[in-house]
Amino acid sequence: MSTTITFYDIKSNRGAWSPNAWKIRLALNLKGIPYKTHWLSFTEIEPFMKKLGANPTGKKPAPDDAEDLYTCPVIAISSPDGSSPSKLIEESDAIAEYLDAAYPDTPKLFPTGTRALQAAFGQFFLSEVMMPTSAVLVPGLVAILDEVNAKYVEDTRMRWYGAPVSTWAPLGSEKRAGVWKAAEEAWGKLAAVYAKSDGVWISGAQPVYADFIVVALLACAREVVQDSEFAAILKWHGGVWGKLWEASSPYLAERQ
Ligand SMILES: N[C@@H](CCC(=O)N[C@@H](CS)C(=O)NCC(=O)O)C(=O)O
């Protein structure tokens, strides 16, 4: 297909980190689709997306829930000569569906018959695994942003979730140890799901979108938690996440 994909991702001083954007980066890398990353900081997303004509992907959490929320990832598809207007696709799931439809000769993220099951998996992952893990990820995220964007994350998360990010899981604290214990238990539920598979990937020999939801959170953790903490995750539950991480390395390599 003779089009150019621009992939909007969120910058940090360690490069790619956003779990939602990583899902799509992994998908593009699996499919071998060329793309160009356009990096945006948190505070650039809303004004930039409005100007681009992108749709919001939801509402901000309360008390700002009357306001639209603009997020990454977004992709823009344009013809190489720029003669036709860009098509914009917002929201990681919608982008993944688009990539399967637009590049039918590439590995499928949603093999036939798996779309609904993968949607159920996504909901399970978000509430049972991602939520309990985020208490340790968000504080680490603040540390890899510039001053303005660190303040944006601290201020918005304080407003939306009611406690300063710096108190969620301070390094070396008992609280952090407790958060990690809860996270390990949460990932244990996921390990029980993966144990039903006969391969490293959830559906066997090939990765599907559900795997990339998981790997994307590991890729985020890689950038925002301590090295020793990340190494511990890879050993949890008989090393299932270590094996998944290793199998994902071809799709994690391109991160520009
Ligand atoms: N449901 C959306 C969620 C995207 C999302 O929440 N992205 C975060 C980064 S991981 C974001 O852009 N947040 C903007 C902000 O917090 O202002 C998707 O899957 O694309």
Strand content: 5-15%
Helix content: 40-55%
What is the number of strand segments?
A: 6
Q: What are the secondary-structure elements, in order, as H or E?
A: EHEHEEEEHHHHHHH
Looking at the overall shape, the CATH architecture of the largest domain is Up-down Bundle
Task: List the uncertain runs.
Answer: none
CATH structural fold name of the largest domain: Glutathione S-transferase Yfyf (Class Pi), Chain A, domain 2
The secondary-structure class comes to alpha+beta
Rg: 18 Å
Please summarize the sheet with the most strands: 4 strands, mixed
Describe the structure.
The protein has 256 residues and is α+β, with helices and mostly antiparallel strands. The protein folds into 2 domains: 4-102, Glutaredoxin, CATH 3.40.30.10; 115-252, Up-down Bundle (Glutathione S-transferase Yfyf (Class Pi), Chain A, domain 2), CATH 1.20.1050.10. 55% of the residues lie in helices and 10% in strands. It contains 9 helices and 6 strands. Helix 1 packs across helix 7 and helix 4 runs parallel beside helix 7. The longest helix is centred in the middle third of the chain and has 28 residues, at 115-142. It binds glutathione (GSH). The site of glutathione has 12 residues, from helix 1 and helix 2.
